[in-house]
Amino acid sequence: MTERDTARALAHPESCEIRLEGVLHALSDPMRLSIVRELASTDAELACSDFVLPVTKSTTTHHFRVLRESGVVRQTYRGTAKMNGLRREDLQTRFPGLLDSILTAATAEEDRAGDAPAADDPAGDGSATA
User: Fold this and answer.
1) What is the bridge-based pairing of β-strands 46-47 and 73-78?
2) Cα–Cα dist 117/107, whole Å
3) pLDDT digits over 57-103, tens only?
4) Does residue 103 sit in helix, strand or coil?
5) Cβ distance 12 to 71 under 8 Å?
6) Cα distances (Å, whole numbers) of residue 119 to 31, 106, 122
7) Per-residue b/e over 79-109, b at no fewer than 16 CB within 10 Å?
8) How open is the CA angle 3-45-9, to the nearest 5 degrees?
9) In terms of DSSP H, where are the helices of the chain?
10) What is the pTM of this model?
């Protein structure tokens, strides 16, 4: 590893250092949960720039830092890009079934929200008038 590589290395907790409360805190934010859901949908690492989030760049950076420091994602530099990978195996070893349960619940919640009647159509049958 060169001196430059060392300077660009990011701190990550070891698997045994990942704390339940840190993971739950990281996944409690809708933006961070959406990042994790996108990472969970692929086996590939994704660059920070691959995510389209409705927040500023500095806020996006904050969300990725929280996910990294809690042990949910692993970040590495590839050239100038910061690549993100879900630490699925570490999380499964540390907290069996937790990540899958959270992802399943998030999908179910999204599905329910999509089925909810519009505010101007409380009956949900299209009978509301404008």
Assistant:
1) unpaired
2) 18
3) 999 999 999 999 999 999 999 999 999 999 999 999 999 999 999 99
4) helix
5) yes
6) 24, 22, 6
7) eeebbbebbbebbeebbeeebeebbeebeee
8) 20
9) 3-8, 20-27, 30-40, 57-70, 88-94, 98-115
10) 0.81
The SS3 of residue 94 is helix
Name the band, by pLDDT with cuts 50, 70 and 90, for residue 106: very high
Do the beta carbons of residue 105 and residue 27 sit within 8 Å?
no
Amino acid residing at 55: V
The answer to whether the beta carbons of residues 99 and 91 sit under 8 Å apart is: yes
